């Protein structure tokens, strides 16, 4: 029997890539989204890539408890992947109440509905932001979490704790996995889905591709005086399709009863540090483009360097990042050109 996965926030950047991989792996997927931070572009792309016109799409807000409950009534949900959340660090500092209300309430509603319906497998999309400025690199799942530096980061920590506590109290009815993403970048090789930031991008790769296409004049590299080999920050950039596949491994682990504990945490990264300058150089080289960039002051809140030790996900789930940074940056550029109709 086919298993059904509910993907909250399934029309967004990560959600749409995960939906494709789940369908290709043989799952039925229900996509639910309130379209507060995306339009239907990626959902349409998902249908084209998978050749499936019949993917259920529910337009709803996960802060609406009755609507979430109805969703669980309406579909035989074996697992939920919860993406529906606000994600802009700076905005969360300016609007903490909005962030705590949305990100916590929506997740609580999912868990409440799961409890009411006799349990469920719950995959929470967490972030490497929970490690803050790490004392040792690379970070493993055992590395301590640091106090969050933004309300956004705090919602990720709190939701991890809520899931852990809920699993513990459920006597096995609710199982949970938190995937801590490093820096997801790139786009599907079809160039039919990708990142669609609203307004000026905060993240590095959309800023690079928008500069390359001429939408932005110049990329500012925030800080070149960090204690790193070339002075710019180091991150673990993980290909979006590789990251999406990690969700299929995690869901399968849950629905097939292969978990070692009822609540598990995995780092989802490559294990490879790449500096901002290295990323810019790789983008230029693989796409044959000269990028207009300048060095600018450090951005407040940025950590110097962080990358994953992905051994646990490699060994326990059998998942491993596969694509090179070059392939990923070529895909990101193809997506930007697709958007521009070029
Ligand atoms: N960055 C940059 N210029 C930009 C956007 C980001 O130099 O316009 C740098 C940022 O300082 C960080 C890295 O790129 O070192 C990754 O930033 P991003 O916002 O993509 O992800 P984060 O690691 O903050 O989650």
How do the helices and strands line up, and which of them pair or pack?
Layout: E1 4-8, H1 13-24, E2 28-33, H2 41-50, E3 57-59, H3 65-74, E4 79-82, H4 89-94, H5 96-116, E5 120-127, H6 151-169, E6 174-181, E7 183-185, H7 204-213, E8 219-222, E9 234-235, E10 237-239, H8 240-255, E11 263-268, E12 274-275, H9 276-287, E13 293-296, H10 311-317, H11 325-340
Parallel strand pairs: 1-2, 1-4, 2-3, 4-5, 5-6, 6-11, 7-10, 8-13
Antiparallel strand pairs: 9-12
Helix pairs in contact: 1-2, 1-8, 3-5, 5-6, 7-11, 9-11
Bound molecules: uridine-5'-diphosphate.
Uridine-5'-diphosphate binds next to helix 7 and strand 8.
What is the distance, rounded to the nearest whole angstrom, between the alpha carbons of the first and last residues?
Answer: 43 Å
Report the sheet with the most strands, covering strand number, pairing sense and barrel closure: 7 strands, parallel
Strand content: 15-25%
Give the second-level CATH assignment, the architecture of the largest domain. Answer: 3-Layer(aba) Sandwich
Put simply, the count of helices is 11
| The CATH homologous superfamily of the largest domain | NAD(P)-binding Rossmann-like Domain
Q: What is the chains' assembly state?
A: single chain
Attached small molecules: uridine-5'-diphosphate
> Which radius of gyration do the C-alpha atoms yield?
19 Å
> Which stretches are low in confidence, meaning pLDDT under 50 for 5 or more residues running?
none
Q: What is the helical fraction, as a range of percent?
A: 40-55%
From the 3D structure, determine the CATH topology of the largest domain.
Answer: Rossmann fold
Order of helices and strands: EHEHEHEHHEHEEHEEEHEEHEHH
- Average pLDDT taken over every residue: 97
Return the CATH class of the largest domain. Alpha Beta
């Amino acid at each position: 029997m086919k298993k059904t996965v509910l993907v909250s926030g399934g029309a967004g950047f990560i959600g749409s890539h995960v939906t494709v991989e789940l369908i290709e792996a043989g799952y039925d997927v229900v996509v639910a989204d309130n379209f507060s931070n995306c339009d239907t572009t990626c959902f349409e792309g998902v249908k084209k890539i998978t050749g499936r016109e019949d993917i259920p799409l529910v337009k709803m807000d996960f802060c609406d408890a009755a609507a979430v409950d109805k969703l669980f009534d309406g579909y035989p949900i074996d697992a939920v992947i919860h993406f529906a959340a606000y994600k802009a660090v700076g905005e969360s500092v300016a609007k903490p109440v909005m962030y705590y209300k949305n990100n916590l309430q929506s997740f609580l509603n999912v868990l409440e509905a799961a409890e009411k319906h006799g349990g469920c497998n719950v995959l929470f999309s967490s972030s490497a932001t929970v490690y803050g400025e790490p004392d040792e690199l690379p970070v493993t799942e055992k590395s301590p979490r640091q106090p969050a530096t933004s309300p956004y980061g705090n919602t990720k920590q709190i939701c991890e704790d809520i899931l852990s506590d809920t699993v513990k109290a459920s006597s096995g009815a609710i199982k949970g996995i938190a995937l801590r993403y490093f820096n997801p970048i790139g786009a599907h090789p079809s160039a039919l889905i990708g990142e669609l930031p609203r307004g000026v991008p905060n993240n590095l790769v959309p800023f690079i591709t928008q500069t390359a296409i001429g939408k932005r004049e110049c990329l500012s590299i925030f800080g070149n005086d960090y204690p790193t080999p070339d002075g710019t920050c180091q991150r673990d950039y993980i290909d979006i399709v590789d990251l999406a596949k990690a969700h299929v491994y995690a869901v399968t682990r849950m629905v097939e009863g292969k978990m070692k504990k009822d609540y598990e945490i995995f780092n989802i990264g490559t294990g490879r540090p790449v500096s901002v300058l290295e990323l810019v150089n790789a983008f230029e080289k693989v796409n044959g483009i000269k990028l207009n960039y300048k060095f600018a002051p450090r951005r407040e809140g940025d950590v110097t360097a962080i990358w994953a030790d992905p051994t646990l996900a490699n060994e326990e789930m059998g998942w491993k990042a596969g694509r090179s940074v070059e392939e990923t940056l070529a895909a990101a550029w193809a997506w930007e050109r697709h958007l521009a109709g070029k």
